[in-house]
Amino acid sequence: MIEAPASPASATSPTSATSPTSATSAASPGSAASPGSATLAGRLLADDETALAECQAEFGPALRRYLRRLVPADLVDDVVQAVLVELWRCRHRLDPEQPLRGWIFTIARRRAVDQLRARPPASLPLTQALVQALAQPGPDPAERVARAQDVRRALATLPDAQREALVLAYFGDLTQTEIAAAVGAPLGTVKARTARGLRRLGALLEA
To answer: How far apart are CA 119 and CA 114, in angstroms?
Structure first.
């Protein structure tokens, strides 16, 4: 089990940790906080460290299932730890009237995005969606392996912005709107980067 951060000392909130008021669509907790969630939030606001451990016990299993859809398995525990640290550091910004689950899962998605953006393309699993987008030929296993290696090499050569858009879309399973929010770019710009990145990947693979 990942242990909750030990120090209850107040810390400044990270600049990236904006106060979320609702969960992402993949982790919708409902429109109001449950009594148990409100109690946990209140205890966090009161600097009760045991409440953080209870958050891990209550939300940890669902959080891990959610994160397995977003990041490689070896990163799941790292992201969970980052979520707990941020939850503790930002506890004084919690609203007990808002669903605590929504807050936690919003932090989790943001931290998953951070991990994906920092991950070398060669270490990312090739997703079926990207395979289909690039029209991978044939069912032959050896051909698929070779194609996957080619895609990773080509992905590493893309301009940073295009590579980031593709990684977040196809490896992070983010919508274009979510990518725009994550990278701080207009939606139209993100769509253009994704389209250009796919075209460039296709051209590199055909060369």
So the answer is: 9
